[in-house]
Each structure stands twice: as C-alpha cells, then as structure tokens.
Amino acid sequence: MIVSTGFLTLKPKDGFDGRYLYHYFRSKTFQRLKDRFCSGATQKAINNNSFKKLKVPNYEIEQQKKIVQILDIAGNLRQKRKEQLALLDDYLKSVFLDMFGDPVINPKKWPIKELGKVGDLDRGISKNRPRNAPELLGGSYPLIQTGDVSNSRGYIKEFRQTYSELGLMQSKMWPIGTLCITIAANIAKTGILTFEACFPDSVVGFTPNNLVKTEYVQWWMVFLQKILEEKAPESAQKNINLGILRVLDIPVPPIELQDKFVRHAKYDLNPYKV
C-alpha cells in the first residue's frame, strides 16, 4: 500500500487490538487530546513526533476485544438510526408535497408573500467573538452555534456552550419556538429552539405571525436549502444575508392545512422528548 504524506500508518504491536485502536482514535477523548498538539492556520495538522507522544489506555487484550464488540454494536445501531431518520425525512417531504405541492413552482396556486411579511426575521447578536473573549463563556445561558442548528434534526434539544452574564449582556436570549436559520457555512439549515438560548449573527431567528406555522416555514426552507446554498456568494466562506431571506417568496396555504402538517411533523419527530 502507498500513502501520501498526509497520512500516518500504524501497525499494532503485540497486546493491542487494531479495532480497539481504530475506535479509540475516533473517540472525542482522543480528538481533544490530539488537538492540543495540532498546529496550522488554514488547516490543522499534527506531526509524527507529536503523534507518537499521545497515550493510549492499555487494557488487557481480552478487555480490548470486549470494548470493540460493544462499540461495533453501537456503531451498527447508529447507522440503522441514520437510515431510519433518512426515511422519516423522505416521508415528511412526501407529506409536504402532497399537501402543499412543490413550494418552488407552487402548482396549487397558493397566495405568495415575502418571508419578511409572514413573521419577524432578525440576526443573532454577538458583538464580540467568544474565541477572542473567553470571559464571555461558562455561565448558565445556552449559546447555540451554526453546528448545533445544522445537526439538530429539526428541533434543537441540546447545546455545547454557554454564555456568562457578561456574554448575555452583549447578546440576546431568544424564546422557545424560535426557528433558527443558518446564514453562514451551512446555508439555510434550520432548527426550532426547545429552550431559551442566545446565538451569534451567523444565525437568524424567525418568529411567525398569524399567516404561517413555524414547522411549515421550516419544511418549506428544506426545499429551498440547496438553491440558496448554490446561489450564496462566497468569499472566505459561503453566506447569505438577512435581506435575501426577507424577500424570499413563500406560498401561504390556509392555516388549517398548515396545522394538519404540523401535527404530522410533531408526532413523527417527537420534538420535546430529550
């Protein structure tokens, strides 16, 4: 086998199971440890000497094999869960199309409104970047980032960072039920808050008026996501702005029909169960 300079090959010594090492190197524990030794501005990297200094928990070989067996089973379950969630996404898309038609071409001729006319859209607030001001972090106020939105699978149920009192002072708390829309990196990914939270200006918050339901707007956005991503201007990274979102044309079906779709989405996604 021939590999480039961007790879490091490792042959397990006696007393180490190759699959055990594979799982350990993929773990969050190892990734955090490894990151301490990484360097580079545009792309982080670790050199061979630093990698060799990293320590691996040295269990007996039989214990390693038991760990591997458990992690292999867990990995298979996660893969099956991903497949089930993909089927659920397809199902809800089908329900949406059956009830409302393709929202891009609007074959059912629903009335059209600009997104800014069916609710309030505002960017999150982050006057100072937490990476440049660590004193903003570590309090009791949830802080949602673009990754939390894009990985939420519809409803944001967890957070990885918090703001301190000082952080809250330079930001804003958004209420439960706010539709979060990413406008940088992962374009037009969405998630609905299930708790009050702050978020930076790379995320837009949407609250509907009496013309639309939040889940309807969220799934309408699913059909536009790739279009918006392809049209997003790119400098250091792709992004769209609040002006683009506000003038998007959204079909507005009867609120009773939207309510029926919301019942489907909430039942199938079971949003508030953590």
The largest β sheet comes out as: 5 strands, mixed
Q: Beta fraction of the residues?
A: 5-15%
Number of beta strands: 9
On the 0 to 100 scale, the average pLDDT is 80
Range of helix content: 40-55%
Question: Low-confidence parts lasting 5 or more residues at pLDDT below 50?
Answer: 268-274
- Total number of helices: 9
Instruction: Give the H and E element order.
Output: HHHHEEEHEEHEEEHHEH
Q: Class by helix and strand content?
A: alpha+beta
Distance between the amino and carboxyl termini: 45 Å
Shape descriptor reads globular
| Rg on CA atoms, Å | 23 Å
Arrangement of strands in the largest sheet: 2-8-6-7-4
Short structural description:
The chain is of the alpha+beta class. The protein has helices at 18-26, 28-35, 48-53, 61-100, 146-150, 165-169, 214-231, 242-246, 255-269, and strands at residues 112-114, 119-123, 137-143, 154-156, 161-163, 179-182, 190-193, 203-208, 249-251. A hairpin with a 7-residue loop joins strand 6 and strand 7 (190-193).
How would you characterize this protein structure?
- The chain has 274 residues and is an alpha+beta fold.
- The chain is built from nine helices and nine strands.
- A hairpin with a 7-residue loop joins strand 6 and strand 7.
- Helix 4 runs antiparallel to helix 9.
- The chain is globular.
